[in-house]
Amino acid sequence: MIKRPIDLSHDFLAEVLDKDSIAVDATMGNGYDTAFLAALAKTVYAFDVQEQALQNTQKRLTQLNLTNVKLILDGHENLDRYVTKPIRAAIFNLGYLPSADKSVITKPDTTLQAIEKILAGLEVGGRLSIMIYYGHEGGDREKDAVLEFVKELPQENFAAMLYQPLNQINTPPFLVMVEKLKEQ
Ligand code: SAH
Fold first, then answer.
1. Per the CATH hierarchy, to which homologous superfamily does domain 5-180 belong?
2. What tens digit of pLDDT does each residue of 9-47 get?
């Protein structure tokens, strides 16, 4: 079966993760990505602005016996206050959390700030997956802002790729992948 963008977002990061690596889940939500990263990395820093996300994620981690995660109730735009070590892999799932408060959505400004900070903090060879959900109000603006930003990254320093369904109805989420090639 052809890989869905969400599957590739994980496979792309799994290729570079090991038990020495630091990983970031910039949008914790229900903790699905947090748990995935925690199984492969040394430490995961996971961010969300909703208390509900931290609770759901903690429950998932406890069930799976994963203890190597720092759950942070703060916006990903402040991640440099918490993550000072070089980052091997990071992931974003943009938009809102379907099971929670749909008015709490990621926003272009803060998303871009966080992406910039993560790219600055990535190790050479480190990778970032961004799952772009854009069917909601304001989603288009965020999608465009992220694509414009990523397209401008200097190619000596970063490789950037797009993986997107072409014949699916509605606004299926798609994946932007970035790898750091060289320090800026
Ligand atoms: N759209 C995806 C899920 C996205 S969840 C899907 O359908 O599967 C996005 C998460 O980002 C939400 O839990 C939301 O609370 C969180 N979020 C919103 N703004 C944030 C910010 N500035 N920093 C960190 N997390 C944020």
1. Vaccinia Virus protein VP39 (3.40.50.150)
2. 999 999 999 999 999 999 999 999 999 999 999 999 999
